[in-house]
Amino acid sequence: MKPLLPSLRESKRYVVYEVLADNPVSREDAEAAITESARTLMGTLQYATAGFEPLKWKNQKGIIRVNRQYVNHTKSAMALTTTIKRKKVIVRSVGVSGMINKAEKYFR
Hints:
34% helix; 4-stranded antiparallel beta sheet
């Protein structure tokens, strides 16, 4: 089977986010809360179309891969995430990149 041409592939963006909390939050809890917030905001159909996929996590920072048309929806979902496991948190977007290598620079 031949691979898709680049013009037919969906463009993706990598959103780097940071979780600010008094106590450290685990990767699973942060991803679950942001995912639930995104599903609530976008709805199941748009969430599936967005291709929302958490990738990496280090030092309370993470990377989410998303379709380029849904970057603003993803940032809004992060802003609406206020609690994780009944702890008050702030989830903020650090940066957006089209390449994962450049997105990893925001981890520093």
